[in-house]
């Protein structure tokens, strides 16, 4: 079955930049989405269609894509950004899949 | 304002069934694809099923295949999922989602004897 691979954890100091990667062979053909999830809460969409930011999401969140890897970048990380982050896409049959998840720790 | 409220979770024995519901409001329910996504305790998100706006197309993940059935009643603005032949590994918080953009708060299903 199709898999999206993320690093288990990323640590970053306040004000620095966090980059979270997501790799999958179908990513050149399918959009990627990114979600932030804080403990005990539902996921929140932070990036859609690879690079677009929903209204209400701070500008410090951005998405980019290169080949089979997409990246979520959080510029000027704040303490409130500490959370789990998941990428999501679909395989070539249209089945949806989530990435393995990355825990972002703000030092 | 989009609102999605799941219900129907609880403790159920292995092999038994459960039906979850998701009441939707604040948007045109009949125009949107809907999903169920689950999250086992301490684990990541897992996509479960999707249904088209009119209910004609349905897709399941391989892990739940024919055991779970997604459905919707557009006259009631409600999404459902029928969980059959439940296993301990189905224990999770089940979220409903509008187009994977808006999410409910989830309902916990615990499969245990």
Q: Which labels suit this protein?
A:
heterodimer; A: 107 residues; mainly beta; 3-stranded antiparallel β-sheet; 9 strands; B: 113 residues; 7-stranded mixed β-sheet
Task: Describe what you observe in this structure.
The complex is a heterodimer of chains A (107) and B (113). Helices cover 0% and strands 44% of the residues of chain A. In chain A, strand 5 and strand 6 form a beta hairpin. In chain A, strands 1, 3, 4, 7, 8 and 9 form a six-stranded mixed sheet that branches. With 107 residues, chain A is an all-beta fold. Chain A has no helices and nine strands. The relative contact order of chain B is 0.32. In chain B, strands 2, 4, 5, 6, 9, 10 and 11 form a seven-stranded mixed sheet that branches. A four-stranded antiparallel sheet of chain B has the order 1-3-8-7, with no helix packed on it. Chain B has 113 residues and is mainly beta. Chain B is globular and about 40 Å long. In chain B, strand 9 and strand 10 form a beta hairpin. The interface between A and B is medium-sized, with 22 and 18 residues.
| Oligomer state of the chains in this structure | heterodimer
**Largest beta-sheet details of chain A:** 6 strands, mixed
Number of strands of chain A: 9
The helix tally of chain B amounts to 0
Order of helices and strands of chain A: EEEEEEEEE
Task: Please provide the count of β strands of chain B.
Answer: 11
- Overall, the morphology of chain A is globular
Distance between the termini of chain B: 40 Å
N-to-C SSE string of chain B, H for helix and E for strand: EEEEEEEEEEE
* Total count of helical runs of at least 4 residues of chain A: 0
